[in-house]
Design goal:
- By secondary structure, the protein is α/β, with parallel strands linked by helices.
- It has 2 domains: 33 residues; 221 residues, Glycoside hydrolase/deacetylase (TIM Barrel, Alpha-Beta Barrel).
- The chain contains 8 helices and 10 strands.
- Strands 1, 3, 4, 5, 8, 9 and 10 form a 7-stranded parallel β-sheet that branches. A 3-stranded parallel β-sheet has the order 2-7-6.
- Helix 2 runs parallel beside helix 8, helix 4 crosses helix 5 and helix 7 crosses helix 8.
- The radius of gyration is 20 Å and the shape is globular.
- The N terminus is likely disordered.
């Protein structure tokens, strides 16, 4: 086991501390330099593999625990798309800052706009699932709830990977309105699906200006310090706000973590 620096003699500890700071500076420089055309980009700090066995449910707004993130580490997630008038703007903003996010797709929107779902995947973002028709699943029977979940997964995977399946390539799921139930949560775990809640959101389902949304979200992020951020790429105010959000996160010293499945299922067409 590595000894803490504090246990070392001062003469040894000081050089090690300097080297650690120097390494961090180099890492930040390398991340910025790797973003073509934007040396001051926020970038993506690291990739985190998420496993249903260890983190079946994440997000402190709904569950006791969240992802294993350090202070000032954020995971950006977008719900309800893809949508033709707003999702491209969100993708353009993420690309300009070399930031990777997770998109929880609604199957009927994926069915209507498959090229946008394919663009999300092609640009390196993670594809999650958010049902087919966005019902409150805890209001439905188990049979009807799972049917809507499965239909959404099938439409998403058909658009992105070319084959409809009920065991998705990326086993990430978010309940619409966070309307789960103990039985449904157990069913998702048994199917190997990680259920994402959130640690912070901008309440962008309420009408507000992009600047008001930005200030609200930044205040909430500062309060929680780290976690999963929930936004909606179907909202015009959010699409306009995202570029300023990414710049503000960079200025405030936040880092973006890209979540991927620990055991991604093979793509078989």
């Amino acid at each position: 086991m590595t000894k803490p620096v504090a246990s070392l003699p001062l003469a040894a500890a000081l050089p090690l501390a300097f080297l650690a700071l120097w390494a961090c500076a180099l890492t930040g420089t390398a991340a910025a330099a790797s973003c073509p055309g934007n040396p001051n980009a926020l970038g993506t700090e690291r990739v985190l593999a998420v496993d249903v066995a260890t983190t079946p449910r994440v997000g402190r707004k709904q569950f006791p625990t969240t992802l294993p993130l350090a202070d000032k580490e954020l995971v950006l997630t977008f719900d309800d798309g893809p949508w033709p008038t707003t999702t491209p703007k969100v993708l353009d903003a993420l690309k300009a800052e070399c930031v990777k996010a997770t998109f929880f797709l609604v199957g009927r929107n994926t069915e209507a706009h498959p090229a946008l779902a394919r663009r999300e995947h092609a640009e390196g973002h993670t594809i999650g699932h958010h049902t087919y028709s966005h019902p409150l699943l805890d209001h439905l029977s188990m049979e009807k709830a799972e049917a809507d979940i499965n239909r959404g997964i099938q439409r998403d995977d058909l658009a992105v990977y070319g084959k409809a399946r009920t065991e998705p390539v990326t086993p990430f799921f978010r309940f619409p309105g966070f309307a789960s139930s103990p039985a449904l949560l157990d069913r998702m775990r048994d199917r190997g699906l990680v259920v994402f809640g959130a640690d912070v959101w901008a309440s962008d389902w309420n009408p507000m200006t992009p600047d008001a949304e930005l200030q609200l979200l930044l205040g909430r992020i500062e309060h929680v310090g780290r976690g999963i951020v929930l936004l909606h790429d179907t909202k015009a105010q959010t699409a306009h706000m995202v570029p300023a959000l990414l710049r503000a996160l960079k200025a405030r010293g936040y880092h973006i973590v890209h979540v991927v499945p620990a055991d991604s299922r093979p793509v078989v067409n």
